[in-house]
Each structure stands twice: as structure tokens, then as C-alpha cells.
## 1
Amino acid sequence: MKAKTNYTIWFKLIAVLLPLLFLFLAEVALRTCDVGHDLSLFIEHPDNSEYLILNPNISRRYFIKDENSTRGCIEPFKKKKEPGTVRVFVQGSSTAYGFPYENNGSFHRMLQYQFNQNFLNKNIEIINLSLTAVTSYTLLDFADEIIAQQPDAILIYAGHNEFYGALGVGSSGKLGLNPTIVRLGIEFRKLRLGQLFFSIVSRISKKESSDLSETLMKRMAAEQSIKKGSVLYERGIKQFKQNITALLSKYHQNDVPVFMGTLFSNLKDQAPFVSDLDSDMNAGYFYKLAKESEKKHDFAQALKFYTQAKDEDLLRFRAPEAINENIKALVNEYGAILVPVEEDFKSSALHGIIGEELVLEHLHPNLKGYYLMSASFYRSLIKHFEFTTDEEVVLPLPFEELPLTQMDSLFGQYTNLILRSQWPFNEPMLDVDLTGKSMPEVLAGGLAVKKISWDNAMFKLQEYYLNRKEYKNVFKVSESLALAYPMNSEHQMKAGQFATNVGEHKKALMYYRKAFEGDPNIKILAQCVKAGVNAKAFDKLLPILDSKSVQQLNNALVADIKSDIVGLEMAERTIKQQPKNIDVLQVLTKIYYDFGVYSFAKEYAEKLEQLEPENSLALEILKRLNK
């Protein structure tokens, strides 16, 4: 009897394990034959095995149809986090990604530039993991793999896509409405078996294949009328709340600070897409009331009505107020940091009502808008990390200083025109005649219709400005390339050279330092030193000279250079207290001359001559410089 019982147990166990073994072997076989894709969040950089990048195929985890999948930013970061590095990851969707701008128009790149300029001796890396048209399911799914990379902060701007993004409740690409089933579906799609299964299902589906001429917005929106308070509406809000709760809980348990921004959208200049024709008090009704209140200069009432119009809009491409309410409550509950992005937009908008002066269409900001986003997160990060107590440094750099070109701005405008000519805007496409237009206009047009890559457009733009001897614009283009490709030492060197040419010595030091990090050699170090001396940035220069990379050069000149820099720093401090100290003036004159910084050498030699007309050092230096 006992033997029979054991036989039965073994039979049942084998019956269970055999299919699992078969599936395991099938998965191994598919991987061996390279069927499907590795859908790890991070993969090794193809050109440098010391670095990781966001997997270009990662969005295949979430989009049922591969043609709808989107790509994120490719921003390398080291596998092994170096001591002192502040590692920041960005999570979100198209706005967090930076749509429609290529590269440096995104808020995270502007943020990176701010940190590069204001905190030269801090290694702050910002890695954007945002993907267009994804929901909170994606954010939550990334969390464990992000935590494994030792983040010092997470920046989140998300919530507009909860209805129509991948796996959203009103999306054409959903795996169901039950969160557990959706999450299991995501895990299944990570397997090669899952990818094969969905590929087969997609092929044998009786539905017509997607029209790729349509916008992603149209292909993703299945339920185009979701009424406020309806079952589907409440599921969308609940889905966001549950996923963000789980997300913030994970980060909180791992002591990772989270900075989450409040959501903004175009209220004033984006009429509701779809109004409920069965209701008199629909979205169109409130939008009309808002316009009437605005004409009466009752802006507080106008804002209230505009917000109601957005909330009653049946086509839910703009997050309802309930999403922001959840963000504020959950941030408070889990000890995260609330970033007042919407509030900062309202402060900058005319009469506190956000419109086309900051937003291109319904929710994606223009370059000024992305700058506002970056400034909001910048202030919150500075306050949290206590990088400095210097109020001048704490302030964000002015918008005009950012490495953004006329071509970048025009590209956003042209892309916006194309987008607005399609569903759900359906606005007449304006004829953009580029005949006889400037090079920035022509290049922006080519970018918008994908006839030229951003890199090639930037190279042509730089050549155009060089031929016109517009060196400040040449420098701006070189800065833009350096920001987009931080690992490219050649771009860093060129940015440093052009910075020197236009007298931006502090910026030159920053770029030469980055070039030196990528290619440590004495020639680049010499450029660092000269730029630092020109900028009188001794506090920035000395840590470079003390760095491990410089020590590994094992060059006897380095000790002499460091000694001179220390001497300069002390002399500059002393001369402010004792402006007529002959000995100190002589030290300053000689060292600046030796470093080839002739403007300062001449300045101090002239002061020496005034105090001591027969001073031999002053006379000799001035004689040489006057030649």
C-alpha cells in the first residue's frame, strides 16, 4: 500500500515537473538560437564594456504590438559606481523623455548641464529611463533593476498616460484590467517563450494590422470616451495609485530618495478633445465659461473652469486632477519629496493659467517649459543634498546660457505642426516653405521630417556658424554636442577650445576636465590648468591635480604646477587685503606670465610699475608683452 502511495506521489510530481522541464528547455533553446530579445533593463555598452546603457528593446516588455514600441535615451554609466558619484535616474513617459526635442531639449539634459556648470568637482550623473507612451506599470517594473544600480535619487514625472499608455485601462495594448494578471503578463513577455507567443498571436489575429501612418496616440487609444466617475475612469485612477504606492514603497524600503513632480497641461489654449453630448455641463460648456471669465478678467474663476473642462474631457490624454491629488498624498505618505512643477508653471504663466507660451500642444512643454521643469527639480535636489550654501550657485543658470540652438527651437515647432495636423487635433497643416530660409531653419525642417540625423545637422550648423564667424553660436553647438556625448573626449576638447576662444574660461575648465577623464594625458591637463588659471578657479583646479588620474601620469611637472597654483591662490587672497604689497604683486605677475595668462600678468605688472616705477620684473614683463 505504501509503495503504491509513493508511486502515485512520484507520478504526480513528474506530471507537474515534466511540462515545466519542457518549457525550461524550450526557453533555453530559443535563447541559444537567438530568438526574441534580451529584455533586461540595462545592457553592456557595445563600445565600452565598463559601461551600461538602457536596453533599446526594453519597451517590448509593455507593448503588445512591436510596431508601437518606443525607444529611450542612450546614456552610458559605469557598471561599478565610483566613490563620490551621485547617481540619479529619471522615470516617466514622453514629457520626462523630452518629446519632441532631440537630445538637449529635455529637462534632464538641462538639469545635467546645470550641475556640470555649478558643481565642477562633483560627479553627478543623470540617466533618463523614460519611454514614450508608457504607464505606471513600467515605472514599477523598472524599480528592482534600478535599485541594483545604487541610485542616490529617483526623479519621477508621470501620470498623463494612465488611460491610453501601454497597458493602460483604455489602451489598445492592454493585457487585462486585473493588476496581478498585467504584472504576470509583463513577466511572461520578458521570456523568449512569451515573446514568441505574443508574436504568433499577433500574426494570427483577425484584427487588421495597425496603420503605421497614424500617430502612436491614435493607435494606442481604444476607449476614446472615458467619462469622469465611470468604472473605467475609476480603474485608471486606482491603477495609478496602486502602482505608485508599490513603487514608492520599494524605494522607501531601500532608502532611495524620490523626487516626484506635480503634473501640468495646457488648459487655456487646448480645447477639450471630446465633450459628452448627453450632458449640458460637459467639457465644452466649462471651456466656454472659462473663456468668458477670462474676458471679464476673473482669472481665478477662469482657472477653475479650465480645470473642470480638462477633467470632463472624455478623451483622456491629459491627467485629471485626481492624479495630482494622488501624487501629493502618496509622496507625503512615503516620505518622498514633492517637486512643485505645476505650481512653477502657473507662476510663470500669464495670470496663472498655463497655455501655449509654455506648452506646445496639450501637455508637452516648449524649451522654456522644459527649462522650468529642470529648474524645479534642480532647486529640490540642491536643497535635499545640501551641495552648497552659496546662494549664487544655488540659483539655476539663466535659460539663455543653456546649449540650445535656434535649430532646436525650430525643430520643436515644426514637429508640433506635424503632430497637430493629425488625430486628435486635426488642425490644417500650415505650408512651411523653406526656400531661401536660413541654415537653422532648413536643418530643423530636415530633422522634423527625418531627412537628416541630429548629429549631422549639428555638424552642418557648426560649419555654417564658423563660416559666418559667429563664434558664440559655434561654441553653443560644441557645448550641445559635448552634453549629448559626455564620453566623447573629442567633443569635450572642442567645447573647451571654443569656450577659450569666447572667453568662457570656467566652462573651458569643465570641458577640458571631462576630456582629461576620457583621455588622461599631460597635454589635456595643461589645457585644464591654463583654463583654471584664466578663470581664477583655483578651488576647482586643485582637486583635479590631486586626482588619481593625474597621479597615474607620474609626471614631475605636476608637483611644480600644483605648487604654483597654491601660490597663486594664496597670493590672490593676500592682495585683496594688501593691494600694495610689492612682494605679492611680483609673485602674481611672474606666475601668471609663466602660465601664459598674459592679461593678468600685464594687469599686475602695471600695478607694480605704478608702485615701483623702476621694478625690473614689471619693466621686463611689460616690455615683452608690449611686443
## 2
Amino acid sequence: MERSPLTPDRRVQRVVVACAVLQLAVGLFTIRQYGYFRDELYYLACTRRLAFGYVDQPPLSIALLRLVRVFGGDSLVGLRVVPLLAGVAVIALTGRLVVRLGGGALAAALACFAVAGAPVLLAFHHRYSMNALDGVFWLAAALLLARAVESRRLGAWAWLGVVLGLGLENKISVLWLGAGVALALVLFDRPALRTRGPYVAAAIAAALFLPHLVWQVVNGLPTVEFMRNALQLKYRERSFLDFLVEVVLVMNPATLPIWAVGLAAPFVTRPRGTARILACVALTAFAIIAATRSGKAEYLAAVIPIPLALGACAIERWSTTPARAAGVALLGASVAGMAILVAPLAVPVLPVERFIAYQRALGMTPSSSEKKEVAELPQSYADMFGWTELVDVVADAVPRLSPAERERAVIWTVSGGYGSAAALEILGRERGLPPVISGHNNYWLWGPGRYDGSVAIVVGGPRERIAPYFESLEQTGVVECGLCMPYENHKPVYIARGLRAPLARVWAEEKSFN
């Protein structure tokens, strides 16, 4: 009995499942590679102090991680299951958006494989962060926006408001999504603005975001200061052309024809359904990020699946002849080939020694999107090294304290910021290390704790910077961490006794939001 051909819907499902399986396979293979990423340790530290906000992020991703820790503890596997599942969800939602736009199996294959092979998305879905969840909210919002515009149902608008509100509680950049929705409705669907739907969505989103806004006001708008410092001091300023080149690279250069068509086609051809509205949303986010001149291309990671779906559908409709279909097949093969080539640069599929050799073979040098020196590894990998060495050197200093001093001592990370502080707090817990304080980001808001100025183990910083603060300063060791970021390497560790100045004044001077 002959097997009946697959229906278009079944073919789309199989394409999406194949991409999801690929994502799972890569994620599971690399889930324990190298070690904790700097930010992952910081997020774990934040889960021990739940709040309605933090200097550098809203609270949702931290609350979710607190729940994850109930089942998986602080293990790397438990920590990275969520971003891995988020990556699968992004692929599934991309496939769903393709169907919503009228695409079939070919469009789903182009869009979903492009998403699965995008270096920036591979990296974001390898480690825990709010960025891993961001794409889920953007794509869910895109689907709900399409449904709301097409159906005019109040319920669809209400659910859009819920997704926007939760997205804002995960990452404030969802404001760009809201701005794109508003602009798209003004330009292309003004009748919708004469209904209650958009205003109900906005009200629900604002209500869900309100607790974080109140926290910001109560704490002096720390995120505003953080973002201003990051744009001015932390990130490299670049021209629009440099920014565009970076976007092409982080999204896999072979996918450029797909998402470029997705951004342009709805405006130069007769659009289908909500294609023009969705393209406007994506272009708005693109314009906002580019306009900052310091914004990173990776900020578009949550946005880019939308134009990929739009472009894939347009290309599928165009490929009506054998010659055009052959061209599309060649495009798909180039996307897959380039994804294989660049995957080791995004996720640690290679042992570190082989990665360094591979990087050199490609003629690439390690880089950072921030104004930071790098060594043999790019910052995305270097920030996974050096934490156990740091804990070991600090632990060696503890026996030099008297029993009375151990009761009052704290560890103060003067350099290395929240990364060093979180590593010592999370990884040093089993070693019985003293509490950790720092002036960096939310550690500054958490304050000096029990520190009374009598004794501290000070990590990092040149002696001439630290010595004026204390009556005595004894160096106990130096952190040597090899493949870590250079500013984490060769850091001295001191025992500092007798804080000279009032603690409140010193703490105010140590504040660093960046």
C-alpha cells in the first residue's frame, strides 16, 4: 500500500520538529562545557535576594531561576535546561509564524533552520539569561498581534498585553516591541486604533510592568544610570555600516538574503495579512538600536526571527520555477554550511584547545563587544574560566584570620565586579567562605552587610588604590586563571584591617553601575 504524501501542515510540523531536535542535540552536547558563565553566577546570587527589580534587569528571569533551583539546584545542567527549552520554543514559534503568514514547508525550513543556525541565538540558548527568554516573548507577541489585527477580537489584544507585560518584566527592551506595534498600527491599521483592543493591551502591559517601575522609583532609577553608563563607557561606538556588518555576522551571513527580503518585501510587493505590520515592528527595533551608535547587534537576536519568517514566506512564493527552486535550495545549503562553520564560535562544541586552534585556522582573533581587553578566547568563552582558581586563592587567605576575625570578616571584590563576587558567593559556599560584598551593580544596592570595617579579604585592585583605605594591608596570594578575561588574571588578594574612613562614605565611592 502506497504511503499518501504528506499534507502541507504535516510537512511544516516535521520541519519544525527536525529543527527542534537539532537544537536539542547541540544544546545537550554542550550543556556542561567549559563552566559557569559570569552572568549565570550573578543570576544565581540574585535568586537568593528576590525583589521586584535589579540594577541591570527586571525580576522575571530571576524568579524563574529561583523556581528552577528548587529542582536542579545550582548545577550547570539544571541552570541551562531553561535556555535550551527556550531555544526550542523560539523554533516552534517561528514555524507557527510562518504558517500564520501563509507559508509552507519550504518557508518553514528556511526560517527555522536559519534560526537554529544563527550564532547569536545558539549562544543565547546555551546559557541562562534574560536574553534566552526574550525571543519567546517577541515571537509570541508577533503571533498575537497578527491574530488581534486580523480577528479584531478583544481577547487576542488582552493576551497580547499579557505577553508584552511579562516580556517587560523579563527585559526592558520589549519597549522597542511596544513602540513598533504602536507605529505599525498608526501607519498601516488606523481602524484598529478606533477599537478598545490596543488600549486594553497597553493597560494590561502597564499593569504587569508597574511593580518593577515602582521598584525603580523607590531605588532612584538605577537601571537608567546603568544603561547610560553602559552606552557611554562600556560599549564600543560604531558607525551604521559597522553595526550592519556585525548584525550580518552574528545572524549567520548566509541568512542575510532571507531577513533582508523579509524587511523589504512587505513594502515593495502586495503584502499578505499582517506582513507589513510585522515588518514595521522589526524595522522599528532595528532603527532604535542602530540610532544609539553603541547598541550591540546581539540586541536584535529576539527580533530577527520575525523578518526571517517574513522573508522565507516571500522566497517560497517566488520559487515557482525549477531554476528558482534550485536557487532556493542553494540558499538553504549555504545557510546550513555556514551554520556548521560558525557553530564552534557560538557554542563550545570543541574542547578549548581545539577551539583556539580552530579560531586561528579561520584567521580570527578573539573579540569583545565591550571596551575590554581579551586574550586567547573571546569574552563569551573567557567568562566561563577562572572561577575555581579565584575561589581557591581566596580560600587560602581565610586560615590567616583569627577565629574572632572570621566571625566579622567579609570578602570584598574591588575588581572583577559582580562576576568575581558571585563566583565567590556561589562556588565558595561549600568552602565556608565569608559573605561577599561588592560595589558593582546590585551588589552595591545589597550593601556592605555585616561588614564593620574591622577586617576584609580584598580581591583585586592595585595596592596603591586600596592601601589608603586601611590601616594595614597584607597580600596573601595572586589569582592566576589562564584562559579567563585578562582583568580577572594576576589579581592580588589581601587581608585588609582597620578601615580608615567611614564605611558609608567609602561605600558611596565604590558604587559602580555598568
